[in-house]
Write a structure and sequence with these properties.
Layout: E1 5-11, E2 17-24, E3 34-35, E4 39-43, E5 48-53, E6 57-62, E7 77-80, E8 88-93, E9 97-99, E10 111-115, E11 125-130, E12 133-139, E13 145-148, E14 153-159, E15 176-178, E16 186-191, E17 197-199
Length: 200
């Protein structure tokens, strides 16, 4: 059982809106990988909310149509993954998308998705999730072998973000990183009256 992480969000600003947590991956833009709004909740001023998660990975897909910022990743399928024993899966298409059984590549530490030749070009999103919600996706393509290297950093942002929304993280300038020091599993993120962040 992995340790549970938590973020307590406190809204001291005078604005109502959606607080969202998302993850960033190394070398993300170069590999055409999009972050999803992993968690999101609507929060009024003077309200606090807590987000909790475990580092439990999964494979995910959604029949999104075009994969671009603003599209909502929802529905589809989620299959548990394990970096040490079940880190490979095949995405197929037979009139609808479906995952095959998981397997182990023999190479621990990454998650791999093999897309069959039947998969339509860029009509769905496929990727990985954590703690029962999608985190990273890219457009599905036939005959593609994709690798996800899970060393995420966690970020929080306040605005108008729906859970599962595909984000353009290059355009998000007001997010702050949530840093978990070794053996620390909870942080408090406060949006101040002047709309700046403090994380403790």
């Amino acid at each position: 059982m992995s340790n549970q992480y938590s973020v307590e969000f406190i809204n001291k600003s005078s604005n109502s809106g959606n607080v969202a947590i998302f993850q960033k991956a190394p070398d993300q833009k170069a590999r055409n990988i999009f972050s999803l709004a992993w968690f999101s909740k609507f929060v009024n001023p003077n309200v606090h909310e807590t987000f909790r998660w475990n580092i439990d990975y999964s494979f995910v897909w959604s029949d999104t149509g075009e994969v671009k910022p603003g599209v909502i990743f929802e529905g589809g399928e989620e299959i548990p993954a394990d970096l040490q024993s079940a880190n490979n899966i095949t995405l197929d298409y037979n009139g609808g998308y479906l995952f095959g059984p998981t397997s182990f590549t023999g190479q621990a530490g990454s998650l791999y998705i093999d897309e069959s030749g039947n998969v339509p070009l860029k009509q769905a999103a496929v990727g990985i999730g954590m703690s029962n919600a999608g985190t990273f996706v890219q457009a599905a393509q036939p005959n593609l072998h994709i690798e996800f290297i899970p060393h995420p950093s966690y970020w929080i942002v306040f605005g108008n973000y729906e859970e599962g929304e595909i984000l353009d993280i290059e355009q998000i300038s007001d997010a702050v990183e949530l840093v978990f020091e070794p053996n620390i599993y909870s942080v408090v993120a406060t949006l101040q009256q002047n709309n700046t962040w403090t994380v403790s």
